[in-house]
Specification:
Layout lengths: L4 H8 L12 H25 L9 H9 L4 H13 L2
C-alpha cells in the first residue's frame, strides 16, 4: 500500500507514524495532545482545547421528534436530494 504525500512529509519531519494502526481511545488522546503541543505549543493547545462546546437541549428527544414516523427510504431519499442540490 502506497503512502500518501502527507504521510511521507510527516515521517520526513521525524513524526511518529501511526499510519495503518487504528488507535484505541486511551491511545489517541495522549497522541493527539502530543501532536498539538508540538505544532501549537502549550498556549495554542489550550486555546484549541477550549473550543469544545457541550451543546444544549436533549438530542435524543429532538431526534425522535424529527425522525419518528419516517421510513428509512424517506430518510435516504432526503439525503440523496440534499446531495444533488447546488
Amino acid at each position: 500500500m502506497e503512502q500518501s504525500d502527507t504521510c511521507r512529509r510527516l515521517q520526513s519531519r521525524g513524526s511518529r507514524s501511526v499510519v495503518g494502526k487504528l488507535l484505541t481511545l486511551p491511545e489517541i488522546r495522549p497522541e493527539g495532545l502530543r501532536v498539538h503541543l508540538e505544532r501549537l505549543g502549550p498556549a495554542g493547545t489550550i486555546q484549541f482545547l477550549q473550543q469544545y462546546e457541550p451543546g444544549r437541549g436533549d438530542y435524543t428527544k429532538q431526534r425522535h421528534e424529527w425522525l419518528d414516523g419516517l421510513s428509512v427510504d424517506q430518510i435516504v431519499g432526503d439525503v440523496e436530494r440534499r446531495r444533488k442540490a447546488p
